[in-house]
Amino acid sequence: MDIRRREEVEADDVIRLELSQAQREVWLAQRLAPHQPFNVVTYAEVNGPVDQGILELAVALVVRETDALRTRFRWENGEIYRYIGAYQDTALRVIDLGASGDPAASALEWIGGDLVATRAPESGDLAAFTLLRLGERRFIWYQRYHHIVIDGRSAGMLAKRVATIYSLLAGGQRVEPRVLAEAPFLLRTDLTYRSSGRYSEDRKFWQQNFHGDPISAWFSRAAASRRGGRYSYVEVADSQVEPGNLSAVAKGFGVPPMHLWASAVAIHFHLLTRRAQLQFSLGVAGVTTAEADVPGMSANVIPFRVRVEPTAQLKDVCRQITREMFRVLGHQRYRGEDIRRDQDIAGHEWFGPVINLMTFDGGPPFAGCEARWHVPVMNGGEDFAVWILDTCDGFGGQLFLRDIDSGSSMAELEEHKARIVAILTELCGNPGQSVLSLARRLAERSYPLLARSIYGRRGYLEAAGCLRWKDADGVIAQVRSLAFGEGYDNPVARPAIVLGAALVYVTECVKGVGKSGFEPGTLVEISHDSWTIATQSEDVRVSGFVGEDGVAAQARLLAERSGITVGDRLCVISDEESEILTHEHRAAALSEDFWWSPFATRGRFASRTKSRLRAHRGGVSVTGRRRSFRALSTALSGPRFSWRLGSCISPG
Questions:
Q1: Nearest 5°: CA angle at 519, between 513 and 520?
Q2: Measured between alpha carbons, how far is 217 from 360 in angstroms, rounded to an integer?
Q3: Which residues of the chain form CATH 3.10.25.10?
Q4: Does the predicted TM-score (pTM) go above 0.85?
């Protein structure tokens, strides 16, 4: 391995290095999910006279002195290597949008397309610098990097470095070059850590303090959306939260200001899921003080667990979150991928919704200009993600919510945003109130879409997970919320179709297949691997069938064995029956531990459910051809499902 200082490397030298562990994990992640973008993007709204020539020179100097920006990847003899090449001119791209009808909208549209584009590490398109001209004194200064070479911490360093060099050049001052060869230095520290006693200590910490299943699968829902799609973003307007107030409240609590945001997010998920035990994926820098000022890729994701009790005061929740966050940050260098491998966590991404607390200092504004920074996306991934960003420009914390569109609609993200901001406002204005008191105050406001969201449905399962055929969006949301994906069996419930005296589970559901006009629940089409079923709104196609024995079932054979054909109506559960299934088990499952140990109490819950169902309907026929409510009760008493139905409704 060639590790030398910069002054020992000739101008035309090319250094070949192995990948760091962080880079290798990014490379593997993109190979497994090639549809996901792995981009780190930052941009600034700049008002004032920008000297294009000075900016181009500043960019050239930063590229010349930064190993990560001169890195290329090559696959050789069954292994991936990186090459730190000699400096080559990196042109600043300038795009003039001044002639468009709405330059600002055109710029945001261009940015949106670039930041979601997928780029392989071997493509060479790993960094881009673009100046979007909106008018004579209006610009957007855009920087984009592949996550395998630059992380969020480093993107801020590079933005600040460009701004600093620009200011020095504009003032006619000398620019002192950096002398450290960053890539060899970061690789050496990575290899040293992984062979050290500290690595063993960190691994022991996570083995003792984190056990992945089933909480990880419950809080991470990405596998249900693994086909990918476009991303939706929501940003909180600055006027909604007063920066000075946040700082004053945080100082009174003895916590960092951005931990107030994290506390609001945790309380939001507590109210949404009705869980006291919460788990998130925490984005961290993954470096020590020695590497903190060296640009490159070291970012990590670690599990972060916290309990939010209804009786706790808001300020105490915030302090608890700060204590736990500092505790796990002491072990942030141990890779999240290694934690997952150690715990044999499979079938979903990371550990739950992503929380990323980030300080981004873009440096001084260009001479004579004003700048406002934005960081819209940090890396790939399909879990719900929250970024709390401090751009150090006096505007205070910014909140970004992101999700793939098959996970949350834009309207749902808006409701998430509205309630998080409402919780933060209450946290600052009345920190002595309890979480329960806050919940009652928020109940006066309307958040109808949150109850239908993936996490809302997991906290309060309609009809105990049995699919109803009222509307396509409701069926899809139910499947999406309960199907954890390949490699993990949902310990709480699975989306189920009642077939006579048996149940069959499904893992995929899509719409867009037309509207047949048949009655809800009618089997419209049977293919080799799917069924098309009518709902009140439009038809849906369900697939990924799994029997009660856990074995995958072929759609056509399943229909033949069940004695159903096109035109038959599947069991339709009425509103009243759904309410019984939902609330009976919600009342029964009172213990938080019940959710994580569902097998222990399966008999008692199943018997209570069956008694209530029989008392309600007995043998009266359920809507549908050749289907009866007695069949539903029989199905619910099956040996494999008896515990499942009893364990799939949230405690009160």
A1: 70
A2: 32
A3: 461-646
A4: no
H-run or E-run covering 452? helix 448-452
Q: Is the link from the previous residue into 214 a cis peptide, with omega within 30 of 0?
A: yes
Q: For residue range 547-603, what is the model confidence (pLDDT) as tens digits?
A: 766 788 899 999 988 888 999 988 877 788 777 777 765 655 444 454 444 433 333
Beta-strand pair 93-96/127-135: parallel
DSSP state of 358: E
- Reference 451, options 273, 267, 584; nearest CA is 273
H helices of 66-121, where?
Answer: 103-115
CATH class of 6-186: alpha beta
Among 3.40.50.720, 3.90.25.10, 3.10.25.10, 3.40.1440.10, name the CATH number for the domain at 461-646: 3.10.25.10
Cβ atoms 16, 81 nearer than 8 A: yes
- Looking at per-residue confidence, does 585 or 152 come out higher? 152
Question: At 181, which amino acid appears?
Answer: A
Which DSSP string do the residues of 325-340 spell out, in sequence order?
HHHHHTTTTS-HHHHH
Beta strands in 308-423 (DSSP E): 354-359, 370-377, 385-390, 397-404
**Side chain identity at 133, as an amino acid letter?**
R
> Residue 623 carries which DSSP code?
S
**14 near 86, Cβ under 8 Å?**
yes
Sequence-distant (6+) residues with CB within 8 A of 637 are 606, 610
Q: What is the CA radius of gyration of the chain?
A: 27
Cβ–Cβ under 8 Å, residues 431 and 253:
yes
Instruction: Tell me the residue ranges of DSSP E strands in 292-446.
Output: 300-307, 354-359, 370-377, 385-390, 397-404
Residues of the chain with CATH 3.30.559.10: 6-186
The dihedrals phi and psi of 385, each to the nearest 5 degrees, come to: -135, 140
CB 442 within 8 A of CB 423: yes
**Secondary structure of 453-514 in HEC code, one letter for each residue:** CHHHHHHCCHHHHECCCCCHHHHHHHHHHHCCCCCCCCCCCCCEEEECCEEEECCEEECCCC
Contact 71, 184 (CB under 8 A): no
- Partners of 510 in the beta sheet? 541
Q: How far apart are CA 161 and CA 90, in angstroms?
A: 16
What are the residue ranges of CATH 3.30.559.30 in the chain? 216-454
The position carrying tokens 């200590």 is 201
Per residue in 439-484, pLDDT (tens digit) is: 999 988 888 888 777 777 766 667 767 788 888 888 888 887 776 5
Q: Under a CB-based contact definition with an 8 Å cutoff, are residues 193 and 331 in contact?
A: no
Residue 451: which residues within 8 A CB-CB, separation 6 or more?
Answer: 457, 460
pLDDT at 12: 47
- Nearest-angstrom CA–CA distance, 216 and 395: 35
Residue 244's alpha-carbon distances to 126, 237, 241, 258, 615, in angstroms, are 38, 15, 9, 12, 60
CA distances 107 to 98, 230, 333, 370, Å, are: 10, 18, 37, 18
Contact 402, 232 (CB under 8 A): yes
Distances (CA, A) of 298 to 3, 30, 379: 18, 16, 13
Question: Whose CA is closest to 645, among 469, 432, 492?
Answer: 492
Is 91 in a helix, a strand, or coil?
coil
**Structure tokens, 606:** 């199943």
Distances (CA, A) of 514 to 47, 538, 555, 556: 49, 6, 20, 21
Say which CATH topology domain 216-454 has.
Chloramphenicol Acetyltransferase (3.30.559)
